[in-house]
Write a structure and sequence with these properties.
This protein is α+β, with helices and mostly antiparallel strands and 290 residues long. It contains eleven helices and twelve strands. The strands form three sheets. Strands 2-1-5-8-9-4-3 form a seven-stranded antiparallel sheet. It has a three-stranded antiparallel sheet with strand order 10-11-12, with no helix packed on it. Strands 6-7 form a two-stranded antiparallel ribbon. β11 and β12 form a beta hairpin. The longest helix is centred in the last third of the chain and has 12 residues.
Length: 290
């Protein structure tokens, strides 16, 4: 048995050990706006439900360990006292992950992740249209846990309106746990799919991913690619040029022969095979060579 004294290890190491030990953790996909109305969207896995009467949810945006700065979600929650907490299912997990990229202030993560902004009815922040369940909330209280990097901030939210996609309900209008297909956070890059088991989602680039908004139109509008596929394709620093892609393809006879006479749909289907294997580089070279 290894014994850890929190005061004797770095915050980063303790953070990793705690996240590896405490899971699976539900994900609060939190939507806020600033005082100018600029949307912000970010996921947090320090989250749960704490009361039904009144209906209370609590999530905690921690101060960044590396530089002790705070996140836009926290600042927006302080200034507007409103938030929408969207639940995450498997269909949007890659786009959710992409939204956690440290985009500059003022960048709309809805646009970067390719998710749909739906106006709320009782609060200002937008809902995520693709989320199976969305909670419009007022912020009752924010409780800081400390002043140093890694310190949490408990945002105590009261649900004022709840939206449920009817496709996840059973015949008794209860949420079907298989249909909702929720995902939860584990340690490192690991998640768990409630009805399937563990899977890995690489963290967004430390550099800034291009975002779904910068994908070519034929890819964004493809009938082949899912939201998760678009999330993977958008989590790159840049797209290969046609020359770079041709150099890659011409050295891969099996790929070259496959795409030489293929139409656009066939190209997308072929690239998707590599996306399903998380081989994003090969997928992009296939898409860029035609």
């Amino acid at each position: 048995m290894v014994t850890i004294n929190p005061s004797e290890v770095s915050t980063g190491k303790l953070h990793g050990l705690m996240l590896g030990a405490i899971g699976p953790r539900p994900i609060a996909f939190a939507s806020t706006i600033d005082e100018k109305g600029t949307p912000n969207l970010s996921p947090f896995s320090f989250f749960n439900v704490f009361s039904a009467n009144p209906p209370i949810l609590i999530f905690s945006p921690a101060r960044r360990v590396r530089d002790n700065t705070t996140k836009h979600t926290l600042e927006n929650s302080k200034s507007t006292k409103e938030v929408v907490i969207n639940m995450v299912n498997y269909d949007i997990v890659q786009q959710m992950s992409l939204s956690s990229t440290e985009y500059p202030d003022g960048v709309n993560e809805f646009i970067k992740s390719g998710l749909t902004m739906v106006p709320s009815e009782k609060v200002g922040p937008y809902r995520v249209g693709e989320s199976p369940v969305q909670f419009e909330c007022k912020v009752n209280e924010i409780v800081p846990m400390g002043k140093e990097g890694g310190a949490g901030n408990l945002i105590i939210c009261e649900v004022v309106l709840m939206h449920i996609n009817e496709n996840v309900l059973d015949e008794n209008e209860r949420i079907d746990q298989d249909k909702i297909d929720q995902v939860a956070r584990m340690g490192g890059n690991w998640y768990t799919r409630a009805n399937k088991g563990m899977f890995e989602v690489p963290k967004p680039l430390s550099t800034i991913g291009i975002g779904v908004d910068r994908l070519p139109e034929d890819i964004k509008n493809s009938t082949v690619f899912t939201g998760n596929d678009l999330g993977k394709l958008a989590n790159v620093e840049g797209i290969p040029t046609k020359g770079e892609a041709l150099d890659f393809v011409n050295n891969q006879d099996d790929i070259k022969d496959k795409i030489e006479l293929a139409n656009q749909i066939e190209i997308h289907k072929f690239a998707k095979q590599y996306l399903d294997q998380d081989d994003i580089d090969t997928a992009w070279n296939i898409l860029s060579a035609k």
